[in-house]
Structure formats: C-alpha cells, structure tokens
Design the sequence.
C-alpha cells in the first residue's frame, strides 16, 4: 500500500517541508517554477507512458529534488552574489537554511551527473546494465537514499559555517563548494556501489 511505503512518506515529508519553506519565504518564482516542472513532466510522461505516468500517478512525485533543483535558477538569479571583500559567495542571509538547501541541491545534482558520465566512459556496456539502474534507484526509485545524503550534506555545511566559522550558513567559500561536490560524489558512489551489489544478488 502506497501510504505505508517509506519512500512515498519521505517524498511527502520532503515536499511539504521544502515547498512550505519556499512559499513562506515568498520565493514564489522558485515555488511555481517547481510546480510547472512537475506538471510538465507529468503531462509529457502521460503521452510517453499512458496509463503508467501522469498527474494522477505517484511516479512524478518521486523526484521533488529534480523540480526544486532546476527551478532554483530563480533563487540564484535573485539571491546569489559574490562578496567583494572576501570573494565568498553569499545567498539570502534571511533564510540560511533555504540557502544551504538550494546549494546542496545543485552540488548533489552535479555529483550525480559526474558519476553517470564517468561510469559511461569507463565501464563496459555489460557493467552499465547494473550501474545505471542503481543510479536510477538512487535518484528516483528509492529517493529516501537521496534525501538522507542531502540532509547529511546540509547538516555539515550548516554546522561548519555556524559553529566553526562563526558565520551565516548562507555564505559559501569556493573551497567549501568544491569539497561539497566531492563529498556528494563520494557518498553517492558508495551508495550506488551498495545498490549495485544488491541488484547483483538478485
């Protein structure tokens, strides 16, 4: 039953929390762009997979991070600037948690794409039959994995900047962004490897 599915419950919680925070912060371009992306993916999917995908199906709901990441172009357009004196990047100081969320979304996505490209060029076709389904599972079929990794990254970013650097978590150095991407790359590689092993056992 879908209402007892851990991934579905995680998707609902993720969506309610972050869509709610974005709406409350009155970042309506980000909010509505995410909704439009969901509608677009649902409608397009219903044409490609009639009866299996659409607005009334749960499938499109399983990738809220996809919609929120690409729609965050509005967040970065209006709330992202470089500090002239330090060279650090600064997001919206009024909403440090949302700033960390937006940055972690982008870094997680860049790491995911990097892994997919590296695997495509390095592994033989037979191995891709295991690794690409594992990546799909990480991103869309078992999104709870993705959410956990993202929350870990957000916690590290937030605590580092707040507790160690004694600055707003909405401020990011170039080194922090590079290390964040590397952190996401390592975490996703480890989880993907575990999923590949799980698929191989079946």
Sequence:
């Amino acid at each position: 039953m879908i209402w007892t599915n851990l991934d579905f419950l995680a998707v609902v919680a993720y969506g309610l929390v972050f869509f709610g925070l974005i709406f409350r912060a009155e970042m309506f371009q980000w909010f509505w762009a995410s909704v439009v992306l969901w509608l677009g993916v649902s409608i397009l999917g219903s044409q490609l997979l009639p009866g299996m995908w659409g607005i009334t199906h749960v499938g499109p709901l399983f990738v809220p991070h996809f919609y929120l990441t690409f729609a965050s172009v509005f967040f970065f357009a209006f709330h992202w600037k470089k500090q002239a004196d330090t060279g650090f990047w600064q997001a919206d100081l009024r909403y440090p948690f949302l700033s960390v969320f937006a940055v972690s979304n982008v870094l997680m996505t860049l790491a995911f794409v990097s892994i997919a490209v590296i695997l495509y060029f390095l592994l033989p076709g037979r191995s891709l039959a295991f690794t690409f389904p594992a990546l799909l599972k990480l991103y869309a079929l078992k999104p709870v994995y993705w959410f956990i990794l993202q929350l870990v990254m957000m916690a590290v970013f937030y605590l580092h900047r707040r507790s160690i650097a004694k600055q707003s978590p909405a401020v990011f150095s170039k080194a922090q962004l590079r290390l964040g991407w590397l952190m996401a790359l390592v975490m996703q590689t480890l989880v993907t490897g575990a999923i590949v092993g799980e698929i191989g056992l079946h």
Notes: The longest strand covers residues 81-82.
